[in-house]
């Protein structure tokens, strides 16, 4: 199995877990944040949406020009946008060939500055790890918000899996 094939397998396997965690957020608690310096639940959810959307930009242009926006107000709409971004990205990601995955240099740009440049495959791995990290942050918010923590990599106290 190649690095690209393994990435696609993991990416496909992580998707339902992302959706489960997003759906576990109480819709009336989107403003919740455990500390003033942390992102709110809505901001973490919207970050997941924007990261998924920027991956299509990465495939099309070879760069992510990161311009975060304010979250939309409805949990259902944010989840819908996440699912839409995933379904739009999937066919394009599946078409990436091995050489492009391993060799095409891509950039992460913010405020006109190139923060780093990586081969396409490494950029996607970095993006997946970052998304999993933020999903973990959101999952820690669930109980204090009155939600139930779904099974992620195994049973939780709320969900035996």
What topology does this entry show?
Blueprint: H1 3-24, H2 41-61, E1 63-66, H3 75-94, H4 98-103, E2 105-110, E3 113-119, H5 120-142
Parallel strand pairs: 1-2
Antiparallel strand pairs: 2-3
Helix pairs in contact: 1-3, 1-5, 2-3, 2-5
Your description of this structure?
This protein is mainly alpha-helical and 161 residues long. It has a single domain (3-142), classed as dinb family like domain (Four Helix Bundle (Hemerythrin (Met), subunit A)), CATH 1.20.120.450. The chain has helices at 3-24, 41-61, 75-94, 98-103, 120-142; strands at 63-66, 105-110, 113-119. Strands 1-2-3 form a 3-stranded mixed beta sheet. The radius of gyration is 16 Å and the shape is globular. It starts with a helix and ends in a 19-residue tail after the last helix. The model has no long low-confidence stretch (mean pLDDT 97).
Brief digest:
The chain is mainly alpha-helical and 161 residues long. 57% of the residues lie in helices and 11% in strands.
């Amino acid at each position: 199995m190649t690095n690209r094939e393994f990435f696609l397998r993991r990416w496909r396997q992580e998707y339902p877990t992302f959706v489960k965690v997003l759906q576990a957020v109480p819709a009336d608690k989107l403003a919740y944040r455990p500390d003033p310096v942390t992102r709110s639940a809505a901001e973490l959810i919207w970050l997941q949406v924007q990261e998924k959307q920027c991956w299509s930009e990465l495939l099309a242009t070879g760069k992510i020009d990161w311009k975060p926006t304010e979250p939309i107000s409805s949990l259902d709409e944010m989840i819908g946008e996440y699912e839409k971004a995933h379904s739009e990205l999937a066919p394009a990601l599946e078409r990436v060939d091995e050489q492009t995955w391993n060799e095409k240099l891509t950039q992460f740009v913010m405020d006109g500055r190139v923060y780093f440049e990586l081969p396409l495959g490494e950029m996607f791995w970095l993006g997946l790890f970052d998304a999993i990290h933020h999903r973990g942050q959101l999952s820690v918010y669930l109980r204090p918000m009155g939600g139930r923590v779904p099974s992620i990599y195994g049973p939780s106290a709320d969900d035996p899996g």
